[in-house]
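Quick illustration, no need to memorize.
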Amino acid sequence: MVAYQFPPLGGSGVQRTAKFAKYLPVYGWKPVVLTRDPYHMQLRDDTLLKDLPAGLEIIKTPSRDLTALPGPLSRIGKFIAWKVLVPDGEILWMKRALKYALARLGKGDISCLYTTSYPYSDHLMGLEIRKVYPDLPWIADFRDEWTNNPYLLDKPHPPWRAMRERFMERQVLEKADRLIANTPVMKRNFTSLHPDLDLEQRMHVIPNGYDDDDFARVGAINPESRFTITYTGSLYQRRTPDVFLEAAGRLVCSGIIPKESFRIRFIGSMKEGPIRRMIRQNGLEGIVEVLPYMNHRDCIENMLRSHVLLLLEGGMGSECFYTGKLFEYIRANRTILALVPAKGAAADLIRRTKTGIICDWSDTASVEQGIAELYDRWERGALKLDPNHEEIRKYDRRVLTEKLAGILGRMESDKPR
């Protein structure tokens, strides 16, 4: 398993591969993980290491992370990593870590190769390994789209880079034996963009999910006495709380929601300055808490102390996103307030699981109405869910890992003898 993002690195991106590694032994597969060393990790969560199976073989290689350079060099390093190196700054890690991968493969006991992005350099390592081991079955897992990533609509690459990355992406799509997309919309996008590559048959959909063990460790927790809305995760680029905070501010200033009865909590990696300005602009001082990134267990505890969980994802192309946190939201048995595209993957999942309400992410009046409705239910003691548990269970990490194990098993049995 080639996974640059892996515990003790924190953040939602590591959860998918870490949970696959946790549950694959249940289905007869013994993972060997190739990742980066923990030196200068921006987000670190050592509690995630406790979740991994005992004796898991983890090969840690020098990270070569330019974004972690100290002091004034940090800005230069980030510019090089994000703007100069193609397809991402982790290409420096990949080129040096390749020798570790080939050395481990040289022992002769590896049956299949799994690479996961982001970073896309993980898949480029797969291409390099394919040159040396052409018969080793390879599965490439796309947590997000690559050249069709909606965030590139906001800040597109220059034409020379876009062309180069399209070539890299196509090479991966051609050479990998099997491919995984995170959502059905992502699969449709890949298939329509590359109609000649037979992706309909070779690409499977395995979404993100939740792990029941994480909630069992936390136990039962009651919500707080104040009406509490919590957001967990990152805020960056188009993913901002502007519309939500404006709507909340209107409700407080009009007296519909009393200030002393309301709490909003943001937890995760985000720039505090812009949020603090929005808090002041909307008269929400004393209501909004901005908390730094915290370990996974503490994050779940804060979800369970809340009455409502906030989901933010908007902009052109965001219809294909689930976001990793959504699956823990639906498992938490707390009402979701989703500011997302009404016809997107996230909205569809919330409707099928009956776990929340959908508001137009760009319409302040719609969001204001949604918050007011949930507050009114809470005040009347009627903020209760009747979720579709059968649908929710489809996203249990054990169930999802069984799908991956099935793909790996078919690939291993089909390889030349």
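The chain has a mean pLDDT of 93.
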